[in-house]
Amino acid sequence: MTIQDTTKQALSELFAGAAGDTREADSDAAPAPAGDEQETAIRQPGISEQSYARRGFHLDVLITAEQLVRAAEILFALGYYLESITGVDWIKEDRLEAVYDFSRYDFDLCRVVIRIFAPRLDPHLPTITGIYTGASWHERETHDFFGIVFDGHPHLIPLLLPEDADFHPLLKDFKA
Amino acid sequence: MNEPIDLQKDETFVLNVGPQHPATHGVLRVKMTMDGEYIYNSETVLGYIHRMHEKMAENRTYPQFMPNMGRLDYLSAMAFNHGYALLIERAAAIEVPERAEYIRVITVELNRISSHLVWLGAFVLDLGGFTPLMYCFDDRERILDLLESVTGSRLTYCYFRFGGLYNDIDDAFIAGTQSFIKHMRKELKMYAKLVTGNIILMKRLKGHGAVDQNMCQRYGATGPVARGSGINYDVRRNEPYSVYPDLDFEVPVYHDGDSYARYLVRMDEMEQSLRIVEQALEKLPDGPVNPEKKPKIIKPPPGDYYAAVETARGNFGIRLVSDGTKNAYRLKLRSPTYSNMHLFDEACRGMLLADALAFMGSLDLVIPEMDR
Q1: Most A-contacting residue of B49, B218, B337 (CB-CB within 10 A), to test interface
Q2: Going residue by residue through chain B (372 aa), what tens digit of pLDDT does each one get?
Q3: Does B98 touch chain A if contact means CB atoms closer than 8 Å?
């Protein structure tokens, strides 16, 4: 079994309640779900396999905020390391997206992308610093740029912005 | 050796290292809570050279953003060029001619050597040895001259184009590079005699600054920091791109996880980079360096794209969210030093201040890349 299948199987635990959510995307024909407005609007939580050659990652996982910590635990146990956390402001749909990139140290190449949507007004996500200590700076940065509050973060103060910053420059309605 | 003697929290004081401290090699500030000479706790403060490249990416067209890549990591700008070019080529499905791929590898590896030479000189300088810096900068100068002759700039390269290169290399560059390889092999032997076996250097580095594999995984450390801790991870190998699979080279891995292991990884890497350049020059095919067909205006189809390359400091990842227009909807830059530096706060606890500064040097920090 390849690591991609192992990971997929391990992550499908998150969606055990709702059968049929785990679907395979025909990645050569269909565009990736995220980014395309109509697709994102109807996308349900679940795992979709992507073409590495076209996208640069293998598994695209959409989850809800409650599942995040469990997902991070699963990936940590499988030997994944956290590459980065970032956000995307989908202002037209009035929501923010948080994107977590995971990769591996060994030669079983598999990149996993975890996505979570949060409302634009007062977005809250749980922290994963308890599992990936290095998430601390990434979460602080995402808080700087998008205003996403990571509940339970031990030290959520501005990282790259000035210490008295009360603005979030990567929001699309930010005016300098 | 690193064990502190009975740390008492109520007898501590705060020491500011930076933002203008020579040992941080840039504007980095580390707030250290000290108990005498021992570090009780430390907190890194970033952002002194934050320029918000990610916002700039949203306001510029794709080709206009290429020069920004040279401003991220001024020591290995070529690899950052490569990462961005790979991403856009993947997103917009642009083919790269083989000759261009080989020239890319040659320039990236030359740049990697020059980056490691700066690190070596500055690192040994931090430890109190002034002489190697002079030799290192002399050798680096030769690389800069070579790269200047082909790219037009000495430091902040903007040499790659989507699908190809700014211009082709000439015979003078090839001859110059070949003579440089010969010269550099001799110099590396000299460095081994001058620096590597030095007893003072060993005493300062061996057994200090321990970073284990678990810590690497928790922080996402990559590059020589991970390879110094026994993790055989190199994006060139683990996630092959360009023509690296056709070239024969080794990925040096050391298992001690101390500052000396990271030092040895970089020293070996210079040798391997020379091997790569040598082979690439031999195999260099004829042909164009730019594709015949290339879209005039780059508009990647909507969606997410990711690309990663191995820079001199580790895994540089770059994520694009495209909405199908000529500007990026969102561009995320994942820089290697950012994660490598993050583990400093945890790893330096209980160390002597002087050892911690040697440890910091062994992480090979480039602050503009960290702050972006």
Answers
A1: B218
A2: 455 555 566 778 888 887 877 766 778 888 888 888 888 888 888 888 888 898 888 888 888 898 898 888 888 899 999 999 999 988 888 888 989 999 999 999 999 999 999 999 989 988 888 888 999 999 999 999 999 999 888 888 889 988 888 888 888 999 999 999 999 999 999 988 888 888 888 888 888 888 888 888 889 899 999 999 989 998 888 888 888 888 888 899 998 888 899 999 999 999 999 999 999 999 888 888 888 888 888 888 888 899 999 998 889 999 999 888 888 899 999 999 998 888 888 888 888 888 888 888 888 888 888 888
A3: no
DSSP assignment of A135-155 equals: HHHHHHHHHHHH--EEET-TT
- Give the gap in angstroms from C-alpha A158 to the nearest C-alpha of chain B: 9
Instruction: Determine the residue among B304, B338, B363 to mutate to test chain A binding: the one whose Cβ has the most chain A Cβ atoms within 10 Å.
Output: B304
Per DSSP, helices labelled H in chain B are: 53-59, 62-72, 77-92, 98-126, 131-151, 171-191, 199-205, 213-219, 224-227, 235-238, 259-283, 336-342, 344-347, 353-362, 367-371
Q: Kindly report the nearest CA distance between residue A134 and chain B, in angstroms.
A: 4
- Chain A residue numbers touching B92 (CB-CB < 8 A): none
